[in-house]
Amino acid sequence: MVNVFRAFRRLDLKRLVLILAFFGVLLTLGNALFAVYKVQKDLMINDTLDSNRVYATKIANVTDLFLGSVLSQLEYTSDSLKHAYSNPDLLNSELERLLHQTESFNSTIFVDNKGKVLAVSPSTLNLVNTYIKDEKALEPLTRQQTYISEPFLSPVGNLIVSITSPVFDDQKRFIGFVGGAIYLQEENILNQILDKHHHNDDSYTYVVDQNGHIIFHKNVSRIGEKIENNKIVDAVLAGISGSMLAPNSYGQDMLAGFAPVRLPSWGVVSQSNKSATLDKVSNTIVDVLLSTLPLIVLTLLIILLFGTKIAQPLASLAQALKEEGLNSKFDANKINTWYFEADYLKQAFLSSHKRIEQTIQKLDQDRQKDQLTQLLNRRGMEKALAYFVANSQSFSVLALDIDHFKKVNDTYGHDVGDIVIKEFAALMQQCAREQDLVCRSGGEEFLIFLPNVELDVAYKIAERLRLNIEAFKFQQVGNVTTSIGISQWPNISDDIDTVLKQADRALYSAKEAGRNRTHLAECT
Ligand SMILES: Nc1nc2c(ncn2[C@@H]2O[C@H](COP(=O)(O)OP(=O)(O)OP(=O)(O)O)[C@@H](O)[C@H]2O)c(=O)[nH]1
Question: Which segments constitute the GGDEF domain (predicted)?
Answer without folding.
Answer: 393-523
